[in-house]
Amino acid sequence: MYVVAGVTGNTGSAVAETLLSRGKPLRAIVREESKAEAWKKKGAEAVVASLSDSATLARALSGAAGAYLLNPPQYAAEDLIAAQGAVSDSIAEAVQASGIPHVVLLSSHGAQHAKGTGPIRSLHYMEQAIGNAAKSLTILRAAFFLENWVPVLGEVKANGVLPSFLTPGRAIPMVATRDIGRVAAEALLDPPQGTRLIELSGPRDWTPEDIARVLAEALGREVTVRGLPLEAVVPAFTAAGMSIGSAKLLEEMYAAINGGRVAPEGGGAIARRGTLGPEDVLAPLLKSAAA
Q1: 59-74 as b/e, with b when 16 or more CB fall inside 10 Å?
Q2: How many CB atoms lie within 10 A of CB 225?
């Protein structure tokens, strides 16, 4: 039996679907009963549990061979770092209490740094907290999600402009969440002895202009990149409903990405490349929206 958290999100659903496609028994963690039935119909067991409730989470983990866990960002919280830290502590308590033999933990490039990386700081703390609790641990540090471009596809379609807080002309690692799910599922089925660090990127690195070219081909029209100043991060994200504190952390994160601080650690980490690119992830969404 394998337990998967975040099954209603991009990576968790990909992990769960991969395990089911390989005939593995699955226990899906859902936050409310209304989400359980869909997974039961797919042949999974579904349990209602909260990542912030260590007792219910420990029960959900008990008896399983491994679990995929993550700490979704709470961008509405004014102090995101404190909010994420409390959830990490709860997860660590549940992992220790359940005695689960292996955890695959979603983290991020740059989580090797304790500060200077915005919300990724909370993942540094999470890696340590759960590392101290888990019998064996796979840390899956993923690159910038290709799906992070989805919120601006409307402007691409309407105006032929791709706004970007990433430095134009600079290639960085990006990865599809489906690749994250596949690699996480494979890691669950092949547990390590002790702690293993996997750093996952897409098949190659991309610039914002590379993303724009893929979207231009999908639309059949020109798409240009509009580089945005980092000073615009806070107003843009608070307008979208994020707290000021969280928006300031995102400003720090984009500065760290553009400055090269959010990057693979290397060393003893296992470097993996996914198979999916923006043409697989973003172009179909844009074509669907344009239809």
Answers
A1: ebbeebebbbbbbebb
A2: 19
Q: Quick one: angle between helices 120-131 and 244-258, nearest 10?
A: 90
- Return the closest-CA partner of residue 160 out of 230, 226, 236: 226
Residue 221: pLDDT over 60:
yes
pLDDT tens digits along 186-208: 999 999 999 999 999 999 999 99
Q: How many residues does the chain have?
A: 291
Helix axes 54-61, 80-98, angle to 10 degrees: 40
| Chain centroid to CA 35 | 20
- How many whole angstroms separate alpha carbon 43 and alpha carbon 199? 31
The residue among 269, 237, 285 whose CA lies nearest residue 80 is 237
Q: For residue 32, what pLDDT is reported?
A: 83
Amino acid, single-letter form, for residue 274: G
- Contact (CB, 8 A) for 270 and 198: yes
Q: How far apart are CA 66 and CA 235, in angstroms?
A: 41
> Strand, coil or helix: what is 37?
helix
Amino acid 289: pLDDT: 56
* R_g of the chain computed on alpha carbons: 19
